[in-house]
């Protein structure tokens, strides 16, 4: 019964998304805060670590009910058991059942006429003297699509449905929140669509498990 389940879906950007990359070696006049990019293609990516961290945080927050309670609990290693077995821990070392791959841009050709990113200029206004401090933030444009791939390790067949139900819940919460930075100012709204599940070595009813993610497909804050 042990094996793996590959979960694939499309992550579509609904409002400009900023997941920051390094600007340590930017040329003079370059954007202040660039997005992270694939060094091979030059296109933006969604790091697996960003998606994993956001889903874990949203699930922990929903469990504790508020940020203060979550903060009092301490480190991620003290998360509830059902979260630990999905995302792992460092003390003690515990292997994650989920493996998140970096998500690469899948519709670059479709966006070739408009470009993949935009530069959003913002002003931070000093309350003391009203002096403006302009900054430029690079964002992946609305309409960009990324291919998400998540591998789930089947280590206890009796817990598969519960585990994937929790993952689906995190994805629903993500669609009501944001991914990346500057979300409180409108950036980072995303949709998760077109789910597909593939089994490797595990004899599971994938159609029943896929129904968990079909609910995610229609659960979003912005549909246009």
Automatic annotation (TrEMBL):
<protein>
    <recommendedName>
        <fullName>CRISPR system Cms endoribonuclease Csm3</fullName>
    </recommendedName>
</protein>
<dbReference type="InterPro" id="IPR052216">
    <property type="entry name" value="CRISPR_Csm3_endoribonuclease"/>
</dbReference>
<dbReference type="InterPro" id="IPR005537">
    <property type="entry name" value="RAMP_III_fam"/>
</dbReference>
<keyword id="KW-0540">Nuclease</keyword>
<dbReference type="Pfam" id="PF03787">
    <property type="entry name" value="RAMPs"/>
</dbReference>
<keyword id="KW-0255">Endonuclease</keyword>
<keyword id="KW-0378">Hydrolase</keyword>
<dbReference type="InterPro" id="IPR013412">
    <property type="entry name" value="CRISPR-assoc_RAMP_Csm3"/>
</dbReference>
<keyword id="KW-0051">Antiviral defense</keyword>
<keyword id="KW-0694">RNA-binding</keyword>
<comment type="similarity">
    <text>Belongs to the CRISPR-associated Csm3 family.</text>
</comment>
<feature type="domain" description="CRISPR type III-associated protein">
    <location>
        <begin position="11"/>
        <end position="191"/>
    </location>
</feature>
